[in-house]
Design a protein that fits this description.
Pdz3 Domain, seven-stranded antiparallel β-sheet, alpha+beta, disordered N terminus, 507 residues
Length: 507
């Protein structure tokens, strides 16, 4: 399921400054390994109480001193960077106003910029390391940490990771008595497990809420490694970067986003799992940045149609759409059209799981890779490269998926992409068919109701041929400006053609 703009409901990151996460939430099945998680969880929590306590007060007293409030002041332009006073006619009231304004800026009387308020938690008292969200301190000139006893100390930014929205700060451990919390395992969490959230909602200070894990492995389209925990514990703006605890008092998530019509909590919040956060935090502390593994492929989802066309037993793995020249995958002999089934001994259940598995693999390590080609399995070995180095050298776009080339046609609420040779082969598109390929059809959308699907080729829009995504965007824009209620698409699906009328989104 994708959450459309028509619902007037947004995914909001949780600083006090309003922001929106790109894309929309997509529900996924979180119980692929339910039985294994259940047994492991029983072992890990064998000494924990079978029932939640009558009160969380003792646990809160223990954990609260390690949770902090984060305030950051955005960088502002220097007064010297401002343009000269505009020229006005003599006697104009605007002349005095602008001269006074520029004089005040020259005296350093700049307007005080708004502070971004969020939350964080201390993971290392000896060295003063604090974890929060990247968006809490993004573009900050000054960062301050306020402890539970209301003592405020300055912090420096050790490093950030935009892809997972994690930041690590450092405070002087000699300036305050610091308390810490430790990470627990998020992979063994089950839907229905109790959790506590402690943070700084709306800048009010230390606030505690309780709830359960309501879903796992949520993809809200905020980055290439989305694997969020979903909770009904009440979290709001200002909770960003705050910890989510299990009943053992371990951090199993970092509160990051909410699904909300107004910016307030409606009982659907998202947290970065601790198992995803820990290696990122460790790399930032060690190197000041992340160092992720890199395979050198652009990938896409294996749909039911693709699996059938490739004689693949089930919809699994990641389909290789293209390969970076001289990258690790090319050197290992992979080809476009291969489906990666396993990497370094880990099964690739779906497209989105591969980037994370590769990213967490040691750079320079040679690992095994199992793939599907021409109706049978094959294996090879690949030497893992470094993603950040490849980005710096311009070897790839910052997106790690072929879905980065998807163009959203907002009035129709569908995604399209160019029709390449790879897409023709994957979706059995005849060679004499030209157009653009549908790459995204949100559930419960008008396009889905009309029976459109990923892999369909749009040949014409309003009886005008389309060769590229921009052609379609221009035609749809013209129809919208002409106040048309719908557009007529000519669709080709594996040689069969039909017309489909799609309504234009209301203004």
């Amino acid at each position: 399921m994708r959450l459309g703009l028509k619902t007037l409901v947004s995914l909001a990151i949780l600083t006090m400054t309003p922001n929106l996460l790109s894309g929309a939430a997509m529900a996924q099945d979180a119980d692929a390994h339910k039985e294994d998680r259940t047994e492991v969880a029983k072992e890990v929590f064998k000494n924990a109480p079978e029932r939640p306590p009558a009160s969380f007060a003792d646990l809160v007293d223990k954990l609260s001193p390690a949770v902090v409030n984060i305030s950051s002041t955005p960088k502002v332009a220097d007064a010297r960077d401002f343009p000269d006073v505009p020229q006005f006619p003599d006697g104009s009231p605007f002349e005095d106003f602008f001269e006074e304004f520029m004089e005040r800026r020259g005296r350093g009387l700049d307007a005080v910029p708004q502070a971004s308020l969020g939350s964080g938690f201390i993971i290392d008292a000896e060295n003063g390391y604090v974890v929060t969200n990247n968006h809490v301190i993004r573009d900050a000139d000054e960062v301050r940490v306020t402890l539970s006893n209301d003592e405020t100390i300055d912090a420096e930014i050790v490093g950030v990771d935009e892809k997972t929205d994690i930041a690590v700060l450092k405070v002087d451990p000699k300036k305050a008595k610091l308390k810490t919390v430790s990470f627990g395992r998020s992979d063994i969490l089950r839907v229905g497990d109790w959790v506590l959230a402690i943070g700084n909602p709306f800048g009010l200070g230390g606030t505690v809420t309780a709830g359960i894990i309501s879903a796992r492995q949520r993809d809200i389209q905020s980055g290439p490694y989305d694997d969020y925990l979903q909770t009904d514990a009440s979290i709001n703006r200002g909770n960003s970067g705050g910890p989510m605890f299990n009943l053992k008092g371990e951090v199993i998530g970092i509160n990051t986003a909410i699904f909300s019509p107004t910016g307030g909590s409606v009982g659907i919040g998202f947290a970065i799992p601790s198992d995803l956060a820990k290696p990122v935090i460790n790399q930032i502390i060690k190197y000041g940045r992340t160092r992720r593994g890199w395979l050198g492929v652009r990938i896409q989802t294996v749909t039911e149609e693709i699996a059938e066309s490739l004689d693949l037993p089930s919809e699994q793995g990641a389909l290789v759409a293209s390969i970076t020249p001289d990258g690790p995958a090319e050197k290992a002999g992979l080809q476009h059209g291969d489906v990666i089934l396993e990497f370094n001994g880990q099964k690739v259940d779906n497209m989105r799981s591969l980037p994370r598995i590769v990213a967490e693999t040691t750079i320079g390590e040679t690992v095994s890779l199992k793939y599907w080609r021409e109706g049978k399995e094959g294996t090879t070995e690949v030497s893992v490269g470094e993603l950040e180095k490849a980005e710096e050298e311009g070897l790839l776009d910052k997106e790690t998926s072929a879905e980065a080339s998807i163009v959203k046609v907002e009035p129709l609420n569908i995604g399209i992409m160019p029709l390449t040779d790879e897409e023709r082969n994957d979706y059995n598109v005849p060679g004499d068919v030209d157009g653009v390929m549908i790459a995204d059809v949100p559930d419960m959308s008008s396009a889905a109701d009309k029976g459109l699907a990923v892999g369909d080729v749009i040949v014409e829009v309003n009886q005008q041929p389309v060769k590229a995504p921009q052609d379609m965007i221009d035609i749809v824009k013209a129809a919208s400006e002409a106040k048309r209620n719908s557009v007529l698409l000519l669709i080709n699906r594996e040689g069969d053609v039909r017309f489909v009328a799609l309504p234009l989104a209301a203004k």
